[in-house]
Amino acid sequence: MSKKVNCPFNKFTSAMGKFFHKMVPGLKWFFFSFIWLGVLLFVLDIVTKTIVKNNMTVSQEIVLIPNFLSIHYVQNSGMAFGMDLADDTANTIFWIVVSIIGALVLIGITIYAWKKLKGVSKAALMIMIAGTLGNLIDRAFYTNGTRHFVVDWIGFFGPNGFPRFNIADASLTVGTVMLVVYLIVIEFIEDNKKKKGLQTPSNSGEIEVSKKEDGKKDNE
C-alpha cells in the first residue's frame, strides 16, 4: 500500500491552484472593466510627457518620418490641440476648472451607470477619464512662470501641419468617438428591433386570415 508523501512542493502548487481558482472571477472582472486600460494610458501619458519635458527644449523637434511624424515639444496653455484664452490667469483657472468638472462628470457617470454599461462603453469612458486626468495633472503642476501648461509632443505633417497633441488628447478623442459611434449603432439596432416587432404581429394576423379563408373554401 502506497503512502501519500507530504511534499512541500505539492502543498505549494495546491495552495497556488486554490489561490488562482479564487482569483479567476476577480481577474475576469478586472479585465472586462477596462480599468487597466485607463491606468495604462494615464501612466503612459505621464511618462512620455516627463521624458519629453526633461530631455528636450521648448519648440525642439525630432523628425521621425519626414513631412509626416515628429516629436515636437510644445507647451500648450490651452485645451486639446492648442485652444487658448488671452488672459493668463483666467486661462489657467478656466482650463483647470473645466478639467476637474470633466473628470468628475465622467467618473460620476461611470460609477452611476456601471452595472448597465456594456464593454465598449466602459472602455470608452476609461479612455476618456485617463485623458482628462492626464492633462489635469499637467495643468495643475506644470508652469512656465506665467501660465500653467500641458506638454504636447506628437506632431504630424511637418512644422505647420496638424496641431501638436499628446496621449491624453488622443485618448479623449478616441474615447469620445468610440462612445458616440457605439450609441449610434445601439440606437440603430434598437430601432430595427422595434420595427420588426411591429411588423411581426401584422404578418401573423394576415397568415391567420388567409388560413381561415382557405378553410371556408374547403368547406364549400
Explain briefly what this protein structure is.
With 220 residues, the protein is an alpha+beta fold. Helix content is 67%, strand content 11%.
Oligomeric state, counting identical vs distinct chains: single chain
Distance between the termini: 88 Å
Structural class: alpha+beta
Number of strands: 4
Order of helices and strands: HHEEHHEEH
Shape estimate: globular
Could you list the spans in which at least 5 consecutive residues all have pLDDT below 50?
none
Integer-rounded radius of gyration: 28 Å
Mean of residue pLDDT?
A: 82
Description of the molecule:
A hairpin with a 5-residue loop joins strand 3 (150-156) and strand 4. The termini are far apart. Helix 3 (88-112) runs antiparallel to helix 4 (119-141) and helix 4 (119-141) runs antiparallel to helix 5. The radius of gyration is 28 Å and the shape is globular. The chain has helices at 8-33, 35-55, 88-112, 119-141, 167-219, and strands at 61-65, 69-76, 150-156, 162-165. The longest helix has 53 residues, at 167-219. 22% of the residues are buried. The chain is of the alpha+beta class and 220 residues long.
List the main descriptive attributes of the protein structure presented here.
single chain; 220 residues; alpha+beta; globular
Secondary structure: elements and pairs:
Blueprint: H1 8-33, H2 35-55, E1 61-65, E2 69-76, H3 88-112, H4 119-141, E3 150-156, E4 162-165, H5 167-219
Antiparallel strand pairs: 1-2, 2-3, 3-4
Helix pairs in contact: 2-4, 3-4, 4-5
